[in-house]
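User: Can you help me understand a structure? I only have the sequence.
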Amino acid sequence: MKKVTLKSIAEKMNVSTVAVHKALNNHKGVSEELRKKIKAYALAVGYGVKTTRQVMDNKRFIFVINKDFFLTPSEQYYSNIFYYLSGELSKVNSMLQVVFSDDVNPVEKLKSAINTLKPDGVFFAGELSAEIFKYVENITIPSLFIDFYSPLYSLNFMYNNNYQTAYKLANYLIEKGHRKIGFIGNINKTDAVSDRYFGYLKAVNENGLPVNPHWHINENIEISQVIFDLPVQDMPTAFICHCDAAAQKLYSLLSFNGFKVPDDVSVVSFDNTQLCENLLPKLTSIGPARDSFAKKAYSAMIDIMNKKHVTQQISVILVERDSVKTIIH
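Assistant: Let's start by predicting it. Here is the structure, written out as tokens:
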């Protein structure tokens, strides 16, 4: 491929190389209309864009995440993303280090980590405090938020649409003949859980199905210390759990109360972690492929380091296993 130069851009735009230089460097001497045309063409042909090796070789990155999201033994959602991403970076002699965040002085902890480790880029995983987002808006280090999106901040995001994903999952159950569908997850805990809940409600309401408040267990049961009861006197035929670990806990609660999965109650969930294959029956779940998520995050960071803005939705896959019964009406 022929190298793109100031001269080749000038010839293509039928202007002088001086005009191209002024336009690309925001100097006076060219009209605003011509400046925009030159910049657009230069961007389209990749002028000034560094190669992957130039951008990512021998760099240091940090992976900022809430400790609870990363260390839950049964979940392994974010830890898998971290390991796949670390593997991608190791191919270009770069390293990725975990930095834990929590709700106690999150910005101060982040500042300390940045000052100590001096990263070339930062990956933020999952939902973090509002203080973090506001702080990152005002720093120049290339940053990408993985598995989270907010329209309130001018930042780089890569995420899956939890609302639409839950809508798809609920409709899957409806297509399987389920008319009484419950939801398990604390909608006050994170945006991800609330988005999933409201996506479920959209599907249920669209199909004219009942919404029984007793069928919503507003707890993240996989970590909750709160005592709660299943609606054993009026059980739904299916539950949507906010994550795979919650589904695992539900399996135990159902068994304790004499219900079998999927004969009596079907169960589906989000994230599609390895846990789904380990449960009996194997769990139907929806989520992104972790290796794909990591590779896309790696590519997005290259774009960000090349001064591009990233807002990218990740596709999800629904993996059918053995935890859903078809009901014939």
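Now, to help you interpret it: The mean pLDDT is 91. The chain has three domains: 6-48, 53-160+290-316, 162-287. Let me know which part you'd like to focus on.
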